[in-house]
Specification:
It is built from eleven helices and 14 strands. The chain has about 325 residues and is of the alpha/beta class. Bound molecules: nicotinamide-adenine-dinucleotide.
Length: about 325
């Protein structure tokens, strides 16, 4: 078996913490280096190596890759949809240059694999709203979506032109209890659990009937690892794969929480994020991911809600 040494960039974020822990279980603690601009997340402390790293500093990144004998990079550092609309220049700059730095180094150092997530935010108001297909009209209206769509084509370009084995998933909104979400439009579906447990009520920044594609973090981690372990010859998409698990509205998740916390109430006060949510599809067709690498989600809304409410208070 080839010995792998993995670098996770953005390891202190919502996905990074859980993905780093999962990768450490596969490759061994010492073989997964966590890195981030901010300090090491509490949940990672003591579980393996950590370096402070800015993905925008290509030289430093390159030095770390060589010094640590890195063979794979998972690039998770990004500005997300809601934060991106507040600072479009920063979102474009980080999301693009960070990716190009990693792809360049992967090419030069002949890394075995690179993982970089895209998002359902690539889709825009002209994409089909239901069961949005893998290949369809893609006209994103947020800077985040534009950066992800351009990023997908850079990944494809580096694969086609230089043979860099870069793989990607268009994540839907991710729901988790371990680390906090980082400024996305689907963050409400995490906040609602915190507020339900702390206050018995929640004021939602989206309208009650806003359906969005979502996924529970254990499914997202499993999807990521499954894609990264799939034989390269099976992969027909080198931009980014649609994956799907759940589609629900704030009203529906509130009703599910009420089954566990009967006194829970919800109010609706839509803000600028409603406009972003309205530009995205409500559900996603992931038949190509199912066909190519056997993707299948495990959590539905009721199983996820029960698991969140059981585990969140322990954090
Ligand atoms: N969370 C979701 O619902 C979701 C949905 C779709 C796609 N994604 C994508 O998944 C990836 C990870 O998302 P997340 O939710 O974990 O985000 P997050 O904001 O929680 O974490 C990103 C991490 O990157 C770090 N970072 C920022 N700038 C950096 C830099 N210059 N150098 C090094 N680290 C830096 C941040 O400190 C943070 O810890 C992103 O590419 C995001 O676009 C996330």
């Amino acid at each position: 078996m080839v010995k792998e040494k993995v670098l996770v960039i953005g390891a202190s974020g919502q996905i990074g913490v859980e993905l780093t822990l999962a990768l450490r279980r596969i490759y061994g603690n010492a073989n997964v280096v966590a890195s981030d601009l901010r300090e090491e997340n509490e949940l990672l402390k003591g579980s393996g190596p950590y370096v402070s790293l800015d993905v925008m500093n290509k030289e430093m990144l390159h030095v770390q890759v060589i010094r640590q004998n890195i063979t794979q990079i998972y690039l998770l550092a990004a500005i997300l949809s809601a934060t991106g609309e507040k600072n479009p220049n920063l979102a474009w700059h980080l999301n693009m240059q960070g990716l190009l730095n990693v792809l360049d180094i992967a090419r030069e150092e002949k890394l075995h694999k690179v993982y970089w997530p895209s998002s359902i935010a690539v889709f825009g108001p002209t994409s089909p709203r239901q069961e949005c297909p893998q290949r369809t009209i893609i006209e994103p209206s947020t800077v985040y979506g534009i950066s992800k769509y351009a990023g997908e084509f850079w990944c494809n370009y580096f694969f086609e032109r230089y043979g860099v084995d870069v793989r990607s998933i268009r994540y839907p909104g991710l729901i988790s209890y371990k680390s906090a979400p980082g400024g996305g439009t689907t963050d409400y579906a995490v906040e609602i659990f915190h507020e339900a447990l702390d206050e018995n009520n929640y004021t939602c920044f989206l309208k009650e009937d806003t359906y969005l594609p979502m996924m529970y973090m254990p499914d997202a981690i499993r999807a990521t690892i499954q894609l990264m372990e799939a034989p390269a010859k099976n992969l027909t998409v080198r931009t980014s794969y649609n994956v799907s698990a759940l589609s629900f509205s704030p009203k529906e998740i509130a009703a599910e929480i009420k089954k566990h916390i009967p006194e829970f109430t919800i109010r609706y006060q839509p803000d600028y994020r409603q406009h972003i949510a309205d530009s995205w599809p409500q559900s996603i067709d992931d038949s190509v991911a199912r066909e190519d690498w056997g993707w299948k989600p495990e959590y539905d809304l009721s199983r996820m809600t029960a698991d969140m409410l059981q585990n969140l208070p322990k954090q």
